[in-house]
Amino acid sequence: xxxLIRKIITAAKAPKPVGPYNQAVQVGNTIYISGVLGIDxxxxxxxxxxxxxxxxxxxxNLGEIxxxxxxxxxxxxxxxxxxxxxxxFSAVNExxxxxxxxxxxxxxxxxxxxxxxxARVEIEVIAVSGELVDRV
Length: 136
Known about the structure:
The protein is an alpha+beta fold. It is 20% helix and 31% strand. It is built from 2 helices and 8 strands. A 6-stranded mixed β-sheet has the order 1-2-3-8-6-7, covered by helices on one side. The protein has a two-stranded antiparallel sheet with strand order 4-5. A hairpin with a 2-residue loop joins strand 2 (24-27) and strand 3.
């Protein structure tokens, strides 16, 4: 039986997890990034400005984790967005489009009961490392 290596990814430029989990785990070429909040790495607090601002900061934080894993937004294949209020869906989409271009990753979006730190948005992704070639 061949062995797979589980690599723990930690990006110093992204906020530390708010619970007992890692920022990301890589197995083979697949990178699983935990849910990320819109936390300012310098203050360890959520950014002001509601869901669009939190989504923007969460996506910046995700970018730092992706870079640490030798990946990028282009290599994201699946995103999951958790919203405290589904009414923020359109505003978060506008922010999302600043980071992801066509062909967009697969995605799910949910309204949830409550997020850590009273956040309005949490985003998790699955990405790959290495060269990704699109076939549409």
